[in-house]
Amino acid sequence: MKILVTGANGYIGMRLLPYLISAGHEVYCTVRDPERLSVTPQLKEKLHLITLDFLASPKENPVPKDIDVAYYLIHSMSSDIGDFSQMEAECATNFCQLIEETNAQQIIYLSGIVNDNQLSKHLASRKNVEDILKKSTVPATVLRAGIIVGSGSASFEIIRDLCEKLPVMITPRWVKTKSQPIAIRNVMEYLNGVLLHPACLNQSFDIGGPDVITYKEMLHRYAKNRGFRNWILSVPVMTPRLSSYWLHFVTSTSYPLAVNLVDSMKMEVIAKDSRLQEILQIEPYTYDQAIQMAFKRIEQNSVISSWKDSMVSGRLNKALKGYIQVPQYGILKDAQRLDNIDADKTFKALWKIGGKQGWYYANILWKIRGYLDQLSGGVGLRRGRTHPDKIYAGDALDFWRVLLADKKGKRLLLFAEMKLPGEAWLEFKIEGNTIYQTATFRPRGLWGRLYWYSLVPFHYFIFKGMIRNLAKG
What we know:
It is a single chain. Helix content is 36%, strand content 20%. By secondary structure, it is of the alpha/beta class. It folds into two domains: 2-309, Rossmann fold, CATH 3.40.50; 314-472, Alpha-D-Glucose-1,6-Bisphosphate, Chain A, domain 4 (2-Layer Sandwich), CATH 3.30.530.20. The chain has a seven-stranded parallel beta sheet, sandwiched between helices. Helix 3 (85-99) packs parallel to helix 4 (121-134) and helix 5 (154-165) crosses helix 7.
């Protein structure tokens, strides 16, 4: 079967790709930037990549005419604090126009459960996309899920951050809101199970796990599964704005995503029925089982995808290739070089940089810079890294974004996503037995230059120490 996957760079899309390939399907992916698809080279070789932005109307339809099924997994929930519904509607409309020109027999869309007449902006936008897809001449199957629990999912990582960092929590009232979490493994089973299933065409289904619990219960049960206790006190005085700041500072959530999450968390998200479970004969995992399966992935360093690697978790507003050319003029630079190194040992150390490993020198100063960035609304160091020793273009790496990760050429290029009065790149390259490390800053006006020169004394020690310790492995 020929299958098209949109939103392939997202958390769900990256989980779905290996499922479809292992099932023997021929898979086409639409991506805005092919360099940013963070999958293994072995998997990438089996995929057909189509460069396509659904916010733009291409002159020619790049989607193969003989596509059988198309997954629509495009969401822009955390891209902006304001009204993103117009962007999502435009994407869905353009998608329908392209798919209707093919022989596709089914559209599959993963949406959110809607239980309330007064929907959050996020859920109202998802519902609007549903309506657009249902008007298409291609039969649509809509799966509506609530909180998805799995290694790397936004919901799981937020719960994990809250519980691991705060044994005692003073929380907003929305922790008493009920939800019906579902394991990521079940979501994959449903997405695969509805493929051209006759009983699923032109149908909408709610999908959820067996537990209907409050967010407070989720936090308690997470702690119990991890072998510790936590104490939670909910207060009525925490406004949506304060709640958003609370999530932003305590967890690895970006502020725009925190705003939209808080807006949605006030609504109950409970499946209306279990029709699809009965049709496909799927046994749902409990919330506790979902947590345990997530940690098996984490402990084995086999997390397939993380929401943190999504572009909306940072500040890049264009494709990676728009930043990959490091400027040569109008810049400030710190260049370091170290000869007579053990190239293989240094390369292995380089590929582990950031996250729990740290930055090899003055980690406390990196942490302080991360806290300052977080206080100003930036991403800080909370995103860490998805894999301990694997790096792909497009990955989040603390408050950097990986622009280039060339193992063969032994080159790593990062772009700063912290709050800065300018733009910054950090590049590492190993040639022979020499490592080159270059920090490049393109200042924005006088404040940018003052910022750089105020940090020159710190740069002298940090960058010198970093390249020296990298070479030690």
